[in-house]
Design a protein that fits this description.
Cofactor: Zn(2+)
GO biological process, one term: alanyl-tRNA aminoacylation
Enzyme class: ligase
CATH superfamily of the largest domain: Bira Bifunctional Protein, Domain 2
Family: Belongs to the class-II aminoacyl-tRNA synthetase family.
CATH class of the largest domain: Alpha Beta
Structural class: alpha+beta
Helix content: 25-40%
InterPro entries: aa-tRNA-synth_II/BPL/LPL, Ala-tRNA-lgiase_IIc, Ala-tRNA-ligase_IIc_anticod-bd, Ala-tRNA-synth_IIc_core, Ala-tRNA-synth_IIc_N, Ala-tRNA_ligase, Ala_tRNA_ligase_euk/bac, DHHA1_dom
Length: 872
């Protein structure tokens, strides 16, 4: 077995499959594109689903990749086990309807065992297979595997609901009896017992059936296109090759761990208790890559995951004795480890470090609150004579404040408390169930459409034409190819002026005419067929025939409106980079007829001043009437021109570069105006947050922009009329004057309310009652608002009249309640919660004062009658 670095392992895998005519697919963003079923890219195949379900046909059916992935469903195991990670790399080779079982198994065995490649000892490899899959067993024997090293496992069948499925075969490496002290042997593998001896390094999925949950597995129909999907964990391979005890004892993690040693003054020992070192090393990798791909910490979705990872890492830093912020300085180390294949971490390290530093600083301010909460919980338990910290409280500390369970346990144990582990597990499961239901909105992979996948005719989109004479090549109705077609159908022509929806630009609409100029069909939508042709969704008015020629006409007015918005999107993207920062990466867009929508990554709300500057800058470029140039070239040349690739787009050998002077250069396959002046006018309508770390701008152009400005002017004119301002220009001064008058009136009102309260107080505070050792005042009062109750409470505090004060007032048709307490035995917040339901209300507050509102003013008398019993 060769000695290799992690970079060499990754490169050797890819080079092997390149030698077998595979195309290397670059690692995609961790943030899924157009896939609501995934929170993160969680496997090597996740970015290739479009090929497996047949919605897109790849240029080469043989693909290989090294794909970064994130999984956080069992984050609590990271650091405890030898191989759990939140971010990992999956090396894979894939066949889309090309080779199958025979070649896949032969490739795996050659790569692993041949002297030219990894050179693993054959006797160290064991393989599991699905018991009914005799073909796989036989094939392994044919390539030279000892039958005693082939283990049948009933679970070796991959399926997730309906869609592609099939048996899988897994390859394990035997690390020897050192990792099997009880000499259990192969039973560890056969019985699926968790162990450190037999390490799974590769899984080959033989995707050959179309799963249907309604029928037995033995009756699943075969797929029209059989596929191979494999996954080799880089971290596990490197661990075996470098002889690490765990995945962390490799060059993927040790440089990070060495930096943590310097920060903490403690030493990592691969044989000792090193959970905190491992957690920090793992989590900083995930944070660096995820933030680099545009995800930002927040309170929901991906943002919540990142915030949780960061807080968990910080708490483990504290366990190691690290004081102050420490995570951001680890980012360059992560970048250097991964630089050979992922240069983007170092390229974006300043931004990544900025976000981590900001988030860590915020969390450090909340740690004291968490520590205080632990102290309060334990003090309360002591006072109540309890000896167990409840699971829900442990989970709250873990979930809200990021306190690792083991840290909470340690603090509780130090004070002599037990831990409700089962309660914590139940709370954790509830949260995981909620997360799953919020994320998964559909199946993992769609079923293949054989009809659409079979369409291989050539079809050309005519960028510059609005009308074209085109021959009907293919007609699909009810998923069948037909020659004569009526009703609704999908059509492919040899040429077309109709733009297919792509890159955020909506499809063209229009009509199809026959030779006599009669409209015979309406084009309602245009999408791409699996082989890339423009597939026209049509409503047919008169029978169409394959082979005939028709006139295709787009709705020019609709196209013009859309291209104005699309070109303005490019200007907006550039303006965001100039004013907000280069980290404002596109996270989706929509260029519609009436508006444009642009989503981008940013860690804060865009200020009014920034929005005004963006709007101004875009309009200045529009007024300069800059020519919009489109250049066709290769990807490398485009990048050398400084072209930005749009989020989530896949580009072929020839790409289109849209260049707007020196202001904007982007890769884009959409249609655009000839000059910026054709856009006319640009107006931002709204800026809002749509998710953790993702903002959205909605804007309009041309006529819609004019209408937006006119609406704003009309509103101002209306306001001017209401406040009696002679001109719009005087509205601000008039409103300021009215605000000053209102403030003066409010001060006078508060002064009068204070006098009224003082007048009532003498009478109210005469009636002091008692219950046990407590004294209290409970009275209905007449005040104009809740502030009047507070003023009475202030007077009561100054006079030291009783232990508790309960005031209630009818204000309008509702009731308002105030409770104040000077007694350590009575918490105002608790008492108000008991009394509020008597007036059909609810409320809360601090131990010394609390308030509530209720809808049942008729209940005031009954509430006052029950104050004494609530104080007992």
């Amino acid at each position: 077995m060769k000695t290799m670095t992690s970079a060499e392992v990754r490169q050797m895998f890819l080079e092997f499959f390149k030698s077998k005519n595979h195309t290397v697919e670059p690692s995609q963003s961790l943030v899924p594109v157009n896939d609501p079923t995934l929170l993160w890219i969680n496997s090597g195949v996740a970015t290739l689903k479009k090929y497996f379900d047949g919605s897109v046909v790849p240029e080469n059916p043989r693909i290989t990749n090294a794909q970064k992935a994130i999984r956080t469903n069992d984050i609590e195991n990271v650091g405890k086990t030898a191989r759990h990670h939140t971010m990992f790399e999956m090396l894979g080779n894939f066949s889309i309807g090309d080779y199958f079982r025979k070649e896949a198994i032969a490739y795996a065995w050659e790569l692993l065992t041949s002297k030219e490649w990894f050179e693993f000892p054959a006797e160290k490899l064991y393989i599991t297979y699905y018991p009914d899959d005799k073909d796989t067993f036989n094939r392994w024997v044919e390539v030279g595997v000892d039958p005693s090293h082939l283990v049948p496992i009933e679970d070796n069948f991959w399926e997730i609901g309906a869609g592609p499925s099939g048996p899988d075969t897994e390859i394990f490496f035997d690390r020897g009896e050192t990792y099997d002290p009880e000499h259990v042997g192969l039973k560890l593998l056969a019985d699926d017992i968790e162990n450190d001896r037999y390490i799974e390094i590769w899984n080959i999925v033989l995707s050959q059936f179309n799963a249907n949950p309604a029928i037995p597995r033995s009756e699943y129909p075969e797929l029209p296109q059989k596929n191979i999907d494999t996954g080799m964990g880089l971290e596990r391979m490197v661990c075996i090759i470098q002889g690490g005890k765990t995945n962390f004892d490799t060059d993927l993690f040790l440089p990070i761990i060495r930096e943590i040693e310097k920060l903490s003054g403690k030493t990592y020992d691969s044989d000792g208790e090193n959970m905190s070192f491992k957690v920090i090393a793992d989590h900083i990798r995930s944070l660096s890559f995820a933030i680099g791909d545009g995800a930002l910490p927040g309170n929901e979705g991906r943002g919540y995951v990142l915030r949780r990872l960061l807080r968990r890492a910080v708490m483990h830093g504290k366990k190691l004795g690290i004081q102050g912020k420490f995570l951001a300085p680890l980012v360059p180390t992560v970048g250097k480890i991964m630089q050979s294949y992922y240069p983007e971490v170092l390229e974006k390290q300043d931004f990544i470090m900025q976000i981590i530093d900001r988030e860590e600083e915020t969390f450090n301010r909340t740690i004291d609150a968490g520590q205080k909460l632990i102290d309060e919980l334990l003090s309360k338990l002591k006072a109540e004579g309890k000896d167990t910290l409840e699971g829900e409280d442990i989970f709250r500390l873990y979930d809200t404040y990021g306190f690792p369970v083991e840290l909470t346990e340690e603090l509780a144990y130090d004070e002599g408390f037990k831990i409700d582990h089962e309660g914590f597990k139940a709370a954790m499961k509830e949260q995981q169930d909620r997360a799953r239901s919020a994320v998964v909105k559909g199946g993992s992979m769609g079923a293949q459409n054989e009809t659409l996948s079979s369409i291989e005719v050539e079809s050309t989109f005519l960028y510059e034409d609005k009308v074209a004479q085109a021959k009907l090549l293919v007609a699909v109705k009810d998923n069948e190819l037909v020659e004569n077609v009526t009703g609704t159908a999908q059509l492919v022509f040899d040429v077309t002026p109709f733009y297919a929806e792509m890159g955020g630009q909506v499809a063209d609409h229009g009509v199809i005419k026959n030779a006599s100029g009669q409209v015979v069909a309406n084009v309602l939508d245009v999408q791409h067929a699996p082989h890339g042709q423009n597939l026209h969704e049509v409503e047919i008015l008169s029978t169409l025939k394959v082979g005939d020629t028709y006139t295709l006409e787009i709705d020019v007015e609709r196209r013009n409106a859309v291209v104005k918005n699309h070109t303005a999107t490019h200007l907006l993207h550039a303006a965001l980079h100039h004013i907000v920062g280069n980290h404002a990466l596109q996270a989706g867009s929509l260029n519609e007829v009436d508006f444009l929508r642009f989503d981008f990554t940013h860690f804060a709300q865009v200020t009014k001043e920034e929005l005004a500057a963006i709007e101004r800058q875009v309009n200045e470029v529009i007024w300069q009437s800059i020519k919009v140039d489109t250049i066709e070239t290769d990807v490398e040349t485009a990048k050398s021109m400084g072209a930005m690739a749009l989020f989530g787009e896949k580009y072929g050998k020839v790409v289109r570069v849209v260049k707007i002077g020196d202001y904007s250069v982007e890769l884009c396959g959409g249609t655009h105006t000839a000059t910026t002046s054709e856009i006319g006018l640009f107006k931002i309508i709204k800026e809002e947050g749509i998710g953790s770390g993702v903002r959205r701008i909605i804007a309009v152009t041309g006529q819609k922009a004019y209408e937006a400005f006119k609406d704003a002017e009309d509103t101002l004119n209306e306001v001017a009329g209401v406040i009696k301002a002679p001109q719009i220009s005087q509205v601000v001064a008039k409103v300021s004057s009215l605000q000053d008058e209102l403030k003066t009136a409010q001060k006078e009102n508060n002064a009068l309310a204070g006098k009224l309260a003082a007048t009532q107080s003498d009478e109210i505070f005469k009636n002091i009652q008692s219950v046990g050792d407590l004294t209290f005042v409970a009275s209905e009062v007449s005040v104009p608002d809740a502030n009047g109750l507070r003023q009475l409470a202030d007077i009561w505090k100054q006079k030291e009249l009783s232990d508790v004060l309960v005031l209630v007032a009818k204000i309008g048709e509702k009731a308002s309640l105030l409770v104040a307490s000077k007694s350590s035995e009575i918490k105002a917040g608790n008492l108000v919660k008991e009394l509020a339901p008597l007036i059909d209300g609810r409320g809360g507050g601090k131990p010394d004062m609390a308030m509530a509102g209720g809808s049942n003013a008729a209940g005031i008398g009954g509430l006052l009658d029950r104050v004494s019993e609530k104080l007992v």
